[in-house]
Design a protein that fits this description.
This protein is mainly α and about 325 residues long. Helix content is about 80%, strand content about 0%.
Length: about 325
């Protein structure tokens, strides 16, 4: 199975490379569009928040959350008190901060493979400034849409945390200890880490935006949209499918559809699913923690379905 997957990936990448060589102007422009989307919508929303959450971590918020919420985390999610810290940072900062922190915990010997997998099902979320600021206000031009989506998004993540708590074995109880090495310049470290993180996000958006252009040029998803044309409007389904490649671009495409319960529900599902770009970022970190990638991907799919259903219920309350 792995050999087949590898062969298909090589064929698709080779085909993409051929398309870029034959028509470089188109793909340069698509890369520029991805950079513009990142610079004008994503960067202003994420960079300040990355900095603030990094600073809060340096100031000891992790200690407080770990000690205060140790027992609830153990009962609800079969994890130590640091689960609260990972979840809060994931919800506040967005992809792929949760995955990065899980990898750090694993590196320090604070979580085992099974516990890291359970945490990845709970602590893989987008952030409020992206959902409310970038998507709600920036794309849909209505912050209430953002509030609707973020409520559905967080609740669906909690649902996945409760559902996948049954995965694997319990880990030995361990105390949550932070590395308290003195920091020479806290502000510099926070700014530096925030800039690097947001640049990585921009790189993924740029690369996967060109993938979307390549798929559009050959109508890659035409068979799927044709198959479901009587069930789901073509523009919504097409935007969602392209969003599965790169989430931010997909959200923008969905926002260009008529504002409706279904356009918001599909956007909510897409943000919870994350898409290949987000999966690639997260798995890059989670693989170092030996997280079961299949379980992680399954949890993201379940989260997307739950977020979609919750948005259908919640949207009438926000319009």
């Amino acid at each position: 199975m792995k050999k087949i997957f590898k062969a298909v990936t090589v064929i698709l990448l080779s085909f993409f490379l051929l398309l870029t060589v034959l028509n470089p102007d188109k793909y340069v422009n698509s890369a520029l569009d991805g950079i513009k989307l990142w610079a004008l919508v994503v960067l202003p929303a994420l960079l300040p928040f990355f900095f603030i959450t990094a600073l809060l971590s340096k100031l000891g918020l992790t200690d407080f959350l770990a000690k205060t919420l140790k027992k609830p985390c153990a009962k609800l999610f079969r994890s130590g008190g640091y689960c609260a810290y990972v979840f809060c940072m994931s919800v506040l900062s967005g992809y792929p901060v949760g995955a990065k922190i899980i990898a750090d915990l694993s590196k320090n010997g604070l979580v085992g493979q099974d516990e890291a997998t359970r945490l990845s099902c709970l602590c893989s979320t987008s952030g409020p400034l992206f959902i409310v600021g970038s998507v709600g206000y920036g794309m849909f031009h209505d912050k209430n849409v953002g509030f609707c989506i973020i409520i559905a998004h967080v609740l669906s993540a909690v649902f996945c945390g409760l559902l996948f708590r049954f995965y694997g074995k319990d880990n030995p109880n361990k105390n949550f200890l932070l590395n308290k090495t003195a920091v020479g310049n806290v502000l510099y470290d926070c700014v530096y880490s925030s800039v690097i993180s947001v640049l990585i996000v921009g790189g993924f958006i740029c690369v996967f935006s060109t993938f979307i252009t390549a798929f559009k040029s050959v109508n890659f998803f035409l068979p799927i949209t044709a198959l479901f044309k009587n069930l789901i409007p073509k523009d919504l389904l097409s935007a969602f499918l392209y969003g599965f490649i790169e989430c931010t671009t997909g959200c923008k495409m969905l926002a260009l559809c008529d504002l409706s319960t279904y356009s918001v529900a599909f956007t909510s599902a897409l943000i919870s699913l994350g898409g290949l770009s987000v999966w690639a970022q997260s798995i890059a970190f989670l693989s170092s923690a030996n997280v079961n990638v299949k379980v992680f991907c399954l949890s993201k799919t379940v989260q997307a379905v739950i977020a979609f259903l919750l948005s259908l219920i919640l949207f009438p309350l926000f319009v």
